[in-house]
Design brief:
heterodimer; A: 344 residues; mainly alpha; MetI-like fold; 2 domains; two-stranded antiparallel ribbon; 15 helices; 2 strands; 78% helix; globular; B: 297 residues; elongated
Chain lengths: 344, 297
C-alpha cells in the first residue's frame, strides 16, 4: 500500500518539475531569440502579412496567456509546426524518437550485462589482475567522453578493420522493411513483425558500435560499484555464517553476496541510462544514426524553436520515467526500504 | 591562557598541523598524486599556451598548404602532425587546453557562489517556504540531462563560446544548491547550530560562520571533479556545432570538424585533440578523488 503512495508522490514531483521545465523552455524560446514571426517569413514580406500572421498565431496576447494556450496544445498532443521539416513537430517526434530509443535501450542492456559481468569478475578476484584491469578500465571509462569512444570505435572497428558498418540504420537492401510499413516505428520490432530476421540482424549489426560507445563509460564505473559492494559485504557476518554452515560457495556468492551489492549500482545505472539520452546527441552524429537527437541537432542549428522546445520536453519526460523506474527498482531490491514502507 | 601560549610554541600552529594531516591523507594514494601532476600540467599549459607552443600563429586562420596532413611522429617540427591547412596539431591542442580551462573557470566561478548560498539558505530553513521555493526551482533544471538543456539554451542564442558558457552556467548551479542543501540541512539540528541560535546569533552568522565551514569538504571535492565535467559539456556543445566555432582552436570543435571530414586517412587531426580532452578529465577526476580522501576521516 505504502509503495503506491511513494510512487504517486514521485510522479507528482516529476510532473511539477516538468511543468517548471516547460515554463523555462517556453520563455527561453519565446523571449530570447526575438520575434518568432520574423523568423518564419522570408525577408521582404509586407508588414500587413506579418501583422495578420501575428494575430493568427496568438502572439498579440500577453506571454502568460500564450504559455497557457501552448500548454493546452501540448496536452492535446500538438507540439506546433516545424519550420525545418515543414510539418507537425508531433509527427517528427513520433518518427524519430523510436529510432533513438531503441539505440538507448540496446546500450542500456549492454551496460547492465557488461557491468554485472565485469563487476562480479572483479569482486570475486579482488586485488588480483582482473580487479586491477577493471580498475584501470573504469578510470579510462570515466575520462573518455562518449563521442570520443564513438570516433575511436568507428576508426578502428569500422574504417580500419571493416568489422562493422561506419554508420546509418540499415544497409540499403533492407531499407524496404522500414519504408514499407512502420507498425511501431521501432526498426527492430518492425523487422521482426515483417518476419525479416535478416533485417533485424542487420539492424543490430549497425547498432552495436554506437550502443557500445554510449554504454562503455558507465559500464566500467558500475562494475567498480558492484565490486566495491561485494568486497565490503564479504566481510559481513551473515556471509561468514552462510559459509560456516557449509553452503556451496556459488550459492553464497550469487544469492547472499550479489543482491545487496547491486543496490547502489542500480541507482547509478539508472542515472547513466538517463544520461545516455543526452550522450545520444553526440554518438548519433558520429554514426549518422537517423534518430531523434540527430534530427533535433539539425533543427537546433536552424533555430527551429518549436522543435527545440519539444526536444527538451520530450527528453525531460523520458528522463523522469527512467528515474522513477530506477527508484521503484531500488525500493524493490532493498528490503529495508520495502519493509519500512509497509511497517509505517 | 599562559598554558595555551606555551602549548602553541611547542607544537606547531594548529593550522599548519591541519594542513600537514590533509596532505598526508591526500598523498597516501599514488593516483591522487598523479592527478595533481596531470592537472597542474594542464593548468600550466592552459595559462601559458600562447607563449610555449611552437607555432602560436597556427591558432587562427593560418594556412600553409605545403605542409598539410603531415602524419605524426615523422617530422620533427610537427610531432603530432598537421591538419588540412598545414597547422600544427600539437599547437592547436595546447591552445585548446586554454579554451577548455577558461570555460571551466568561468562557469565554476559564476556558479559555485550562488549555488552554495541558495543551498545554505534552503538547508537552514528546511521545511519552510524558502526551502520549497529554492529546491523546487532547482528541480526544474535537473529534470533533463544537463547536455540537453545546455543544447536547448545554446540553440536559441548565437552559437559561440561565450553563450556556451552562459548556457552551461545557467544549468549548473542547481547541483551546488542540491549538494549544499543536503549537507547543511543535515547539520541544521546539530548542537553547535542550536547553541548559536540560543545565544542569539544572527542567521547570517549561523549560515556562514557555523554551517558553511562544515560544508566546504564536499563542495571543494565537487568543484575539482566538475572542472572535468564542465569541460566535457563544453566540448560536447562545440562538438555538435553549438559552441565555439572554427577556426577557434577549441578541442571539441577540432574533434568534430576533423572527424567529419578527414577521418580514416588523417586520423591524427581529430584523435589527438580528443586525447587532450580525456587527459584533462582524467587529471581532475583523480585530483577530485584525492580531495575527497582528504576530507573523509
Amino acid at each position: 500500500m505504502k509503495m503506491k503512495t511513494y510512487i504517486a508522490r514521485r510522479l507528482g514531483f516529476a510532473l511539477f518539475s516538468l511543468l517548471g521545465l516547460s515554463i523555462l523552455v517556453f520563455y527561453l524560446a519565446r523571449v530570447i531569440p526575438g520575434d518568432p514571426v520574423l523568423m518564419m517569413v522570408p525577408p521582404g514580406t509586407s508588414p500587413d502579412v506579418i501583422e495578420a500572421l501575428r494575430q493568427r498565431l496568438g502572439l498579440k496576447e500577453p506571454l502568460h496567456l500564450q504559455y497557457l494556450f501552448w500548454l493546452g496544445d501540448v496536452f492535446r498532443g500538438d507540439l506546433g509546426f516545424s519550420v525545418y521539416t515543414q510539418r507537425s513537430v508531433t509527427n517528427d517526434v513520433l518518427e524519430y524518437l523510436p529510432i533513438s530509443l531503441e539505440l538507448v535501450v540496446l546500450a542500456a542492456l549492454m551496460e547492465i550485462a557488461g557491468s554485472f559481468l565485469l563487476g562480479v569478475l572483479a569482486g570475486t578476484h579482488a586485488y588480483k589482475w582482473p580487479d586491477n584491469l577493471v580498475r584501470i578500465a573504469s578510470y579510462i571509462g570515466i575520462s573518455v567522453p562518449a563521442f570520443v569512444w564513438a570516433i575511436v570505435f568507428q576508426l578502428i572497428f569500422a574504417l580500419q578493420l571493416s568489422l562493422f558498418p561506419t554508420g546509418g540504420l540499415l544497409d540499403s537492401q533492407y531499407m524496404d522493411v522500414i519504408r514499407a510499413r512502420r507498425v511501431t516505428g521501432f526498426t527492430s520490432l518492425d523487422s521482426l513483425i515483417a518476419g525479416r530476421f535478416d533485417a533485424f540482424v542487420n539492424f543490430v549489426w549497425h547498432a552495436t558500435l554506437p550502443a557500445l560507445a554510449l554504454c562503455i563509460g558507465g559500464m566500467a564505473q558500475d562494475a567498480r560499484i558492484i565490486r566495491a559492494g561485494m568486497v565490503e559485504n564479504k566481510e559481513k557476518e551473515y556471509i561468514a555464517m552462510a559459509t560456516s554452515q557449509g553452503l556451496p560457495q556459488r550459492l553464497v556468492m550469487f544469492k547472499y553476496l550479489l543482491k545487496p551489492s547491486i543496490i547502489p549500482a542500480v541507482t547509478v545505472m539508472g542515472m547513466d541510462i538517463a544520461a545516455m539520452l543526452g550522450n545520444a546527441f553526440l554518438v548519433e552524429k558520429v554514426f549518422r544514426w537517423p534518430g531523434f537527437s540527430q534530427h533535433a541537432i539539425a533543427a537546433m542549428l536552424r533555430s527551429d524553436l518549436n522543435t527545440i522546445v519539444a526536444t527538451v520536453i520530450v527528453i525531460g519526460i523520458i528522463f523522469a520515467i527512467v528515474n522513477i523506474i530506477t527508484d521503484i527498482m531500488v525500493a524493490y531490491l532493498d528490503p529495508r526500504i520495502r519493509l519500512m514502507e509497509k511497517g509505517e | 591562557m599562559e598554558k595555551m601560549r606555551l602549548f602553541k610554541t611547542i607544537k606547531q600552529s594548529p593550522r599548519w598541523e591541519y594542513a600537514k594531516r590533509m596532505w598526508y591523507k591526500f598523498s597516501r594514494s599514488p593516483l591522487s598524486i598523479a592527478g595533481l601532476l596531470i592537472s597542474s600540467v594542464c593548468i600550466f599549459i592552459g595559462l601559458f599556451a600562447p607563449y610555449i607552443v611552437p607555432y602560436p600563429e597556427h591558432g587562427g586562420l593560418f594556412h600553409n598548404f605545403e605542409d598539410r596532413f603531415i602524419p605524426p611522429f615523422q617530422n620533427s617540427s610537427y610531432i603530432l602532425g598537421t591538419d588540412y591547412y598545414g597547422r600544427d596539431v600539437l599547437t592547436r591542442t595546447m591552445l585548446g587546453f586554454q579554451y577548455s580551462l577558461m570555460m571551466a573557470g568561468t562557469v565554476l566561478s559564476l556558479v559555485v557562489v550562488p549555488g552554495v548560498i541558495l543551498g545554505l539558505v534552503a538547508g537552514y530553513h528546511k521545511g519552510r517556504w524558502v526551502d520549497t521555493v529554492i529546491m523546487r526551482i532547482s528541480d526544474v533544471f535537473i529534470a533533463v540531462p544537463p547536455l540537453v538543456l545546455a543544447l536547448g539554451i545554446c540553440s536559441v542564442l548565437e552559437p559561440n563560446i561565450f553563450n556556451a558558457m552562459m548556457a552551461v552556467s545557467l544549468m549548473w548551479w542547481p547541483w551546488y544548491a542540491r549538494l549544499t542543501y543536503n549537507v547543511s540541512s543535515a547539520m541544521r539540528n546539530e548542537y553547535f547550530v542550536q547553541a548559536a541560535e540560543v545565544m542569539g546569533a544572527s542567521t547570517f552568522h549561523i549560515i556562514f560562520k557555523e554551517i558553511l565551514p562544515n560544508c566546504l569538504g564536499p563542495i571543494l571535492t565537487k568543484v575539482t571533479l566538475d572542472v572535468g565535467w564542465v569541460i566535457l559539456i563544453g566540448s560536447a556543445l562545440s562538438f555538435v556545432g553549438l559552441g565555439a566555432q572554427p577556426p577557434t582552436p577549441d578541442l571539441g570543435t577540432m574533434v568534430a570538424t576533423n572527424a567529419e571530414k578527414y577521418m580514416p586517412d588523417f586520423w591524427w587531426t581529430s584523435i589527438f585533440p580528443a586525447l587532450g580532452i580525456a587527459i584533462i578529465i582524467l587529471g581532475f577526476n583523480l585530483l577530485g578523488d584525492g580531495v575527497r580522501d582528504m576530507f573523509t576521516e
